[in-house]
Amino acid sequence: MRGADPRERSVFLGLLPWPERVQVARALRTETVGGLVLLVAAVIALVWANTPWSDSYEALSDAHFGIPALGLDLSVEHWSSEGLLAIFFLVAGIELKRELVTGQLRTPATAALPIVAALCGMAVPAGIYLATVAAGGGSAEGWAVPMATDIAFALAVLAVLNTHLPSATRAFLLTLAVVDDLGAILVIALFFTSDLNPAALGGAAVGLVVFYLLQRFGVRGWWWYVPLGLAIWALTYNGGVHATVAGVAIGLILRCAPDRKAGEKTSPGERAEHLLRPVSAGVAVPLFALFAAGVSVSAPTLSEVFTRPEPLGVVLGLAIGKTVGIFAGTYLAARFTRAQLNPDLAWADVFALAVLAGIGFTVALLIGELAFPDPVEAEHIKASVLLGSLLAAGLAALLVKRRNVIYRRLWEEEDLDEDADGLPDIYQHGTDDPGTHAPGER
Q: Which domains does the chain carry?
């Protein structure tokens, strides 16, 4: 058998090993359902905040509870963003670790395309925001708001519209989001910290070292890790760094390869993800959306979105910047590196997915809260995130639906059996093999 030519270009999102295919399929199913739950929570928040009972929404969001002696007397809204959302980032950290160890990001050739696409998909929206506020004399503080993609929402939209699209479309979106999440995490850690407490941060660092050593020496038992994880989270919060960073740090430390010598069938990371992903997708993220998306939608608020440079920059960054950045980044990576798209994907598919990635919700709202602590400004930014995401979702729905119609027509042609002999006519009439359509032909 001829050996593989090392000079051959790596096929991005080609046929995955079976264990990884199982992992991707499981993640897609859960995230899709989670995206629908997230959508319901966002709608409830919007309706609640725009009814005569909006005061009860504000009162519930501002209600405080916790342990003041430990510096954890937080409002319900802050518990959802600083506490529950840490679970979401912990799962994201595990997912990133798995991709780096055994997935598409483990080799430079296969990692080049999603990394370049995601980086361009973050840089271009930030550039559009900065250009908009510079032209309008606004504040540059919100440059990072339009950088993030809400993978749960995006996958939910894709799931609702898709019946015949190639599976590589979902895998493309998921892999892109892994790198996007890492970028958002780094932005939060590096640019949105305040009043740093070196002692608390030092304690969190020591806790992470202990966590690593427990993993390194194969110590088992949730009673070791859960209290230690909570302590790391609390110390990170009190250290002045957004507490979600603790979640991703723990996720990156967890082992994602089983120790066969110790008789492990699944790794600690896989077990933690199996337990926490439903909690993240079905509880943590929807509750965050419930207390973050309650924007008063009124004529003055909407007018502010289009007349003030900061919210306008967010809308343009999400609706245009993400599309241009991801599509251009994907093209450049495919053109100038050894990576290439799966042959099942057409460039029209990539464009539709780039538009879909403009749905920025969970992390965009979080960064918006951090960048604009003033409640009035925060309301305008929230409205701009919702509007920009809605525009991206609407345009993406049209594009994805059109692509789905094309693929459905191809499927019908390939499965046509007019003589009812059980064999598709395409195999009897000398027509090209199904599945050999070049991307440009679609």
A: 10-192+242-415 (1.20.1530.10)
